[in-house]
Design goal:
This protein is α+β, with helices and mostly antiparallel strands. The chain has helices spanning 29-38, 91-98, 116-121, 129-132, 161-167, 202-215, 247-252, 280-293, 305-309, 342-351, 391-404, 422-425, 429-439, 448-453; strands spanning 7-10, 19-24, 44-47, 63-66, 74-77, 82-86, 103-105, 139-145, 151-154, 176-186, 191-199, 218-224, 234-242, 299-304, 327-335, 358-364, 377-385, 408-409. It binds flavin-adenine dinucleotide.
């Protein structure tokens, strides 16, 4: 472990709201337990690869335990597809280890650069959420160290199932995950068979996405919310399946699945300007080109697994394109019962002048965890530059609309929600708090996200807290 543990300025992927914390980098599970036992007046929070967009892995004035110096390990049982993985290991490393042997994680988010601990803490969802649910639905055990240093093994249906589900989506506030056992899915190639359909507006995107969900394992819609007029929300719906055929025989004879190169282009340098290099006009042109590049008639093609699941990963530090002011990703979900509210909500935020550079639409379903984000309905993830005048007020209005129709925003992406809306959006919060308090009665686990939203406790935050 770093003994001097220098203070470090940390942000999330959106690069807004930096705060300073003492960052410990334990090199063994025992050292991670010791770091947690040591505690800190301002509490402790684990941090993986810092891909949550907001302040979930920050702890102003307190301690942050980085999992990145812990040993990377991934032990695969070839017969069952169960993999025992240490928490700091990235999903990309897991894929590189298991895919050549015919296995793939059951759920992956839109980037390979998330740690297993981070994937569990946000209970991340992927393009197959409508079919397979979220990440923790495929986790068989979680090894957690709780404040005080005790190690507990949690299973989804064992005696401490409530602690398992409080940790799944618990934003690191139940303890530090050290390792997990994952049930992987069997695949026979490293390629995806992808059907692409162009859509003319938001209603059509929703319709095509719903239809695709009925048959395809992986679905998602890119929608254009910079396009003005009747084309608002036009898009490209992709429906994917793991491609199978010829390699089946190779797998059966013990040969490995050929792994396509996991390429990365150069990283974006730090931008000197506040607003970066992305501007609405340029993004509108980019969207136009992206839309036109998609086939006018539905088309099927084969794509390598990396590009299909992680299209943004080819450009390192793409978040820097937004400049010093950074960006935020606003992701919300609304239940099916409120389907007819989605288009008016989008119309309103666009009319408020919010430039939405990238928008992704997806169908979700309910998950077991009390702090889980997904619910049966529609989710939209909106990438927005932070340096926009009036953004706060426009998004506050959107928050209110989301809460009014029984929806919620995703804590792993959030950087600005008002605390008073949290209990409405997460009605099972008291249940989560009760289990969390049992694991951490001294309330050692704290983060900037937790303080901003009064997650751990609804007691008023002291001025100096
Ligand atoms: C380009 C991009 C695409 C994305 N796509 C998706 C998507 O499709 N679906 C989706 O659901 N999310 C998506 N995300 C969000 C991302 O998957 C989550 O924020 C994830 O939690 C990040 O993992 P991390 O290792 O970077 O964790 P960090 O950002 O470092 O931390 C996130 C949370 O996990 C906790 N944590 C980290 N490690 C541990 C540990 N060992 N024990 C306990 N708690 C821990 C932290 O305390 C914090 O609360 C995306 C993010 C990016 C940047």
């Amino acid at each position: 472990m770093d003994t001097d543990a220098p203070d470090q300025l940390l942000t999330g992927w959106g690069r807004t709201a930096p705060t300073r914390a003492r960052v410990l980098r334990p090199t063994s599970p025992a050292a991670a337990g010791a770091a947690l036992s040591e505690g800190s007046e301002r509490g402790v929070i684990p941090r993986g690869l810092g891909r949550s967009y907001g302040d979930a892995a920050q702890n102003a004035g307190g301690t942050v335990i980085s999992t990145q110096a812990l040993p990377d390990r991934c032990e695969l049982d070839l017969q069952t597809g169960r993999a025992w993985v240490t928490a700091g290991t990235s999903l990309g490393r897991v894929i590189e280890a298991v895919l050549p042997r015919g296995w793939f994680p059951a759920v992956v988010p839109g980037t390979q650069f998330v740690s297993i601990g981070g994937a569990i803490a946000s209970d991340v969802h992927g393009k197959n959420h409508h079919r397979d649910g979220s990440f923790c639905g495929h986790v068989r055990t979680i090894e957690l160290v709780v404040p005080g240093g005790e190690r507990v093994t949690l299973t989804p249906d064992g005696p401490q199932a409530d602690a398992f589900w409080a940790t799944a989506g618990g934003m690191g506030l139940t303890g530090v995950t050290l390792a997990a056992e994952l049930q992987l899915r069997s695949v026979t190639t490293a390629q995806m068979r992808v059907d692409t359909t162009r859509t003319r507006d938001l209603a059509h995107s929703m319709q095509v996405l719903r239809e695709a969900d009925a048959t395809a394992q992986y679905t998602v819609a890119w929608v254009d919310l910079l396009c003005r007029g009747r084309g608002l929300g036009r898009g490209v719906v992709t429906a994917g399946e793991h491609a199978s055929p010829a390699e089946l025989e190779a797998i059966a004879t013990g040969a490995s699945v050929p792994l396509p190169p996991n390429r990365r282009l150069a990283s974006v340098p730090i931008m000197p300007t506040r607003a970066g290099v992305l501007h609405p006009l340029a993004m509108r042109m980019f969207n136009e080109l992206y839309f036109r590049a998609a086939p006018a008639e539905p088309l099927q093609r084969v794509e390598p697994i990396w590009g299909y699941f992680f299209p943004l990963d080819v450009v390192g530090h793409w978040n820097r394109l937004y400049g010093r002011a950074g960006m935020l990703q606003y992701q919300f979900v609304i239940p099916d019962a409120a389907t007819d509210r989605l288009i008016p909500m989008v119309d309103r935020v666009v009319a408020d002048g919010v430039p939405i550079y990238l928008a992704v639409l997806k169908r979700l379903r309910d998950v077991p965890g009390p702090l889980g984000f997904p619910m049966r309905g529609w989710t939209l993830a909106l990438d927005i530059p932070a340096a926009v005048r009036g953004l706060g007020a426009a998004l506050d209005r959107l928050d209110t609309s989301v809460a009014e129709c029984g929806g919620r925003i995703y804590l792993a992406k959030d950087s600005r929600l008002r605390a008073e809306l949290l209990p409405r959006m997460y009605p099972r919060l008291p249940e989560w708090r009760a289990v969390r308090d049992r694991l951490d009665p001294g309330r050692v686990m704290r983060s900037d996200l937790d303080r901003r939203l009064s997650l751990v406790t609804s007691e008023p935050v002291r001025k100096d807290a």
